[in-house]
Amino acid sequence: MQTLREIELPKGGSTVLLGAEGGGPADPVILVLPAMGVPAAYYGPFVEDLANQGVGAAVGDYPGQGQARPRISRVVDYGYGELARMWLPVILDATHAAFPGRAVVLLGHSLGGHVMLAYLAHVEDPKVRAGILVGSGSPYWKAQGRNLGVLVKTQIAGGITRVRGMWPGHRFGFGGRQPKTLMAEWAGYARHGRLEPGGQAVEEHLHDVALPVLAVDLDGDPLCPPSATDHLVGKLTAAPVERWTFTKGPTDPGKPVDHFSFARSPEIIGEHLATWARTTVR
Known about the structure:
Layout: E1 2-8, E2 14-20, E3 29-33, H1 44-52, E4 56-60, H2 80-98, E5 104-109, H3 111-120, E6 128-134, H4 148-164, E7 166-168, H5 169-172, E8 177-179, H6 180-192, H7 203-206, E9 213-218, H8 226-233, E10 241-246, H9 269-281
Parallel strand pairs: 3-4, 3-5, 5-6, 6-9, 9-10
Antiparallel strand pairs: 1-2, 2-4, 7-8
């Protein structure tokens, strides 16, 4: 994986687009939208494997994450709205420049799936032809098996963020440093079950999204059980949604399946997603 583009962000600062060439002009490019607190470089083995399976592949750092600058602080803030309406459009522009003329398949991992749907709810981009959700579901506590622990932990995180002016996840072992608005919106989503970038509900617009979507459940993932994915994709009433559970047997190659392992150990899943993307958008 190499640096494809260095990108100036609309509100100041910079980020990078990393990626790998794969496939030909008729093959799509899979653009990975990272999970919370996960730097783009972490997806290197996954991106390389996708390219080896015959598609282009790329991933960008969210503002303040990974190689992006400046870093998250009390004065560097953004929410779902800025990611969907400002960050993702420039990342897509850079992807189109790096892979001219090729269709794009968005792949949202965990929180990246929320960003993907917030974008698709408001933008009709003819070059974005399909979407993939990997370990991505609603954090709504009732969708998480009515898990009161999820409710308590997410609201504590929201409270700490309000007091500190940012989420110091590096001190708690979850999510890394995160901006206050994003954490407030994420905690609200966990509390009431509605994705509301900038205070604006997107559910009614998601009913109009008609792109094909593949939703991947990661076997035994405690952070995103199938019920959480059900709640998220249930908003896509006009989209053809396929479900696939990624699991491994004791003799299968690579690391056991968990919420993050596919990014470093892409055996099996990379081939499946690349095949789905090529078949779906051609």
